[in-house]
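User: My collaborator and I are trying to settle a disagreement about how two of our proteins should look. Neither of us wants to argue from intuition anymore, so we agreed to look at predicted structures for both before our next call. Could you fold the first one, then the second, and keep them clearly separated?

Assistant: That sounds like a sensible way to settle it. I'll keep them separate. The first protein:
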Amino acid sequence: MFNIPFKLRGGVALIAAAFALFLVTTGGAAALSIRLSLAELDAAADAVARGRVERIESYWTADGIIESNVYVRLSDAPRGALSAGAEIVVRARGGEVDGVTMRASEEAHFEIGEEVYLFLTGLENGARRVAAGSQGKYRVLGERAVNAEWGRSLLLA
């Protein structure tokens, strides 16, 4: 196999242990994504909404990770128990607190002012999540909603 110098073996072991801890704490599945069809994504969502990101509030959780509450003012709610004009809260892992930035690779990322088309799921403590992580968030660009990360585009009627 590989002949690792003795001085480096401790560092390699530390990295391997950290990676194993990551897999255990995330269930091993967080690093892997299965591409859902649009029909599967729609079925996984309780609601579908279009709106503008008004503000983002990030905070430390008790588990020591950063989460964000993303406040979205809805302009349309094609499906689910939502209505145009309402403000909803979307909770996402990642954000910035006190100069520390955390990004979760499988999670949808938001920017203040962007117009989004969202497939949403669940309602926990007044906040929803994006269905299927980053797969359920699209940026509205004119008459299209685009998810560049997953190479998808939807024509908005």
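The second protein, kept apart from the first:
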Amino acid sequence: MSRDVRAAAAITIGDVLGGRSLDRALPGQLDTVSDSDRGLLRQLCYGTLRDAPRLQSLLDQLLDKPLRDKDRDLQGLLLVGLYQLDHTRIPDHAAVGATVGAARALKKDWARGMANAVLRRYQRERAELCGKLSPAAAASHPDWLFDTINAQWPHASTGILEANNQQPPMTLRVNRRALSRDAYRAALAEHNIESNNGPLSPDSLWLARPMDVAELPGFQAGQVSVQDEAAQLAAALLDAQPGDRVLDACAAPGGKCCHILEQQPELAELVAMDVDSRRLERVNENLERLR
């Protein structure tokens, strides 16, 4: 039986609040929900975490006392509820009802009344509660990052903060050892997948809509990877030459080191390291997929 999608999102976000990366927390939960709910699960997780500083500040106002560490999944559920009310087209009554219902799926029936009260109060007092947010929380940034951006770029800080909160496009990196960007874009068009050339990296394509990588032509054959365009600039800036020895000291999941090898296959050596040995398994998987 499939897991309730909001409960899956709550568990995922609770894991991230406990220090786990989203890249490690989300895949296991994707396997527990129905295929039709996978897109919603991704949206709830990525969207809630993107707006987490603001949502958490609101939740702090709505709770009489902080939740216990063992209730991080419930904290995640309440943040998901607030996110739905502010950022999705789900009708408010449906978002509240489904979020309250998910407490039962988390085996926390005792929290259903509290979840209902928190979300209903937010509906009633939204403007007042938002008006009490600190400038950093209102901009959905942690204090240290908000202060740093304003100190270093005072005349451009508003635009930087707004850009940081935007949902980025799903960006692909075409493996130039397999085919050209134009050739892969033509392959996408044959599958009715709309894309545009990225403006910064010569290997990048922006998709008009995000999708599961299994739907991408040639993905398993190593023709393409998913990688943000800014991260793609690392290989170009490095400009590795034949015979160079390269150390990637923060390698997982392997996007940059694979890109370096795609651009310069005649390295003498490339060493990939990471603080988490388990995450290095992802590097090996990507190296094998990309041949």
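Some points you might bring to the call about the second protein. The chain has a mean pLDDT of 95. The chain has 14 helices and six strands.
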